[in-house]
Input
Amino acid sequence: MWLVFSAAVAAALLLALFWRGRRLREIMPEHPEIAEALARVARGDTNVRIEPLRCGRQARLASRFNDLVTRIDAGALDWTDADRQERALFDSLRSAAAVRDNPLTFVAIAEVERFTFLRQSIGFELANGLLGQIGQRIAGALFGAEIGRMGRTNVEFAFRANSIGEAQLRLLEAVGMIEREIEIDGYAFDLSVTIGFADAASSSIREELIDRAAAALAAAQGKRVKVGFADPVELEQHSRTDLDLMRALPKALAAGEVQLYYQPKLEARTDTFKSAEALIRWIRPDTGLVPTERFIQVAEESGAIRNLTKWVISRAIDDQKRMIREGFNLDIYVNISGQLLHDRSFAQEALELVRGAAGKIGFEITETAVIEDPEAALANLRDFTSAGIRLAIDDYGSGLSSLAYLKQLPANELKIDRMFVSGLTESHRDPLLVRSSIDLAHALEMEVTAEGVHDAMSLSLLRIMGCDLLQGYYISPPLPLAEFIHFLGDDEQLQRIARSPQPGEWLRSGNV
Output
């Protein structure tokens, strides 16, 4: 059943855009982007959207236009009961929303957030029962949907819709039904689901369609939205970029395009630099800085992460030797991918490399990185600590932190994620969370590093809370080796940090 667009909203939009039948350019000379967008819809382009760049009238018009076109593209509007003038004025939009005679088929993947952890807690039988229930709810929410394979954390399915917009709306409605409380064997579960989907016409190869839906799922999860579509053009561009990065990385290492930058950690009690984190940077001559997360992800997916990490360890050891010659003996920490933690042969290679270090080398890991194979990962971590390698748990609090795993990890340092530190002076909750994390780490005999210290007030608050080490742009941004050595010898920098104001007003307000 087609929905009838609200007469009040339609009247407001028509009044703003088409008052008394004037031409678009005549009624909106100050908003040419809206006139052009309507003209594009009239030509059949229902993918056009307007960015509401300004407040007031333009923002209202842009918002209403975007909502209207989305709903028309989804087949969710019917103008048969509207005023004849409204129908005439919107004929161009209606023609772009004509229902297809042959509905499109879409392939989709619904994944349950953090289901790996839940699966380990509740066991095989209950976990599979939950996925089965989700499959039933998908079939109930999407008439005619065909349920396919069920993985460890997801359900694959196919369904039909008249357009991409309609498919998106139907999936959003389905998410609402799927996320209702599920009860199995007396246990109640509230699950969070994300769906990625792809147009089946974009490929005749089933596995390629599943890969595209999986890519859309990952993108949706990264953007923290419930439903994501696999745009073939965007996927093709990403694929070409990834292939280019895969081919270029080995040459970039040989040509010196890849460098290590160093960000110091300030010891709060003594105002001295005790250690630093090595951060990889790739600067291409033609395009400049390559986003680090992007090429690390490509390296992980292609298997190049092993050789890249060995290169980082070797370069960090060489750079540390130069620092020592300049009179600065700092512990250097290297980030280790979760993919490598359970790899026994990599662990042996890393241990062999570290034996050649002139100073202390540390590894930074995430506490969730041991989940895939806890027994093997923990064995390797214990070997690292036995060899004198210090372990820091990175990004604490950014994911699903498990006290059970935290207790097992043979770590020396806990790094509180920047998302909590950045809100210290603006939130009542973040100081409590940071303080409790510091107390927890100290109870487990770990030092605490606060990441993301970007202002003097945050630095002062963290000192009062008893944080051991401080890291962030207020102290220093990541620097290439030569600049980092110069920074370490600059007494004015330490004096600047030591003069940070004391947060007396925060102490009196009870935030700490």
In short: The CA atoms of residues 30 and 58 lie 9 Å apart. Residues 1-29, 78-101, 505-512 have pLDDT under 50 and may be disordered. The longest strand covers residues 272-284.
